[in-house]
Amino acid sequence: AYLDAVARYFPQGTRVTRPDGGYFLWIELPEGSDALAVQRRAAQQGISIAPGPMFSANRGYAHCLRLNYGHALDARVDAALQVLGALSSAR
């Protein structure tokens, strides 16, 4: 369900992992996207994500996000994913 939501709500050109296990998705936004800016705007909306540069000593993965999908995708989560997709589209 989360993969479908990312496909619907995130900007064209977004790629996402299809993990065999665990509860995180690695989302690769189109080149030029700023994951740190998306994270700041998402936090202002009460949405928690991990920007890619958190996982790199040299601030790599600047256009990537890690998203926890351990919660059921209910109406509240779906609405948050819609907002996150819109925030990811803004530059």
Structural class computed from helices and strand pairing: alpha+beta
Mean pLDDT: 94
- Widest β-sheet, arrangement of strands: 1-2-4-3
Low-confidence stretches: none
Key features of this structure:
single chain, four-stranded antiparallel β-sheet, 3 helices
Walk me through the structure:
About 20% of the residues are buried. The chain has a four-stranded antiparallel sheet. The mean pLDDT is about 95. The termini are far apart. The longest helix has 15 residues, at about 75-90. Strand 1 (about 15) and strand 2 (about 25-30) form a beta hairpin. It has three helices and four strands, in the order H-E-E-H-E-E-H. With about 90 residues, the chain is α+β, with helices and mostly antiparallel strands. The chain is about 35% helix and about 15% strand.
Summarize the structure.
This protein has 91 residues and is α+β, with helices and mostly antiparallel strands. The chain is built from three helices and four strands, in the order αββαββα.
Topology:
Layout: H1 2-9, E1 15-16, E2 24-28, H2 35-44, E3 50-51, E4 64-68, H3 75-89
Antiparallel strand pairs: 1-2, 2-4, 3-4
Helix pairs in contact: 1-3, 2-3
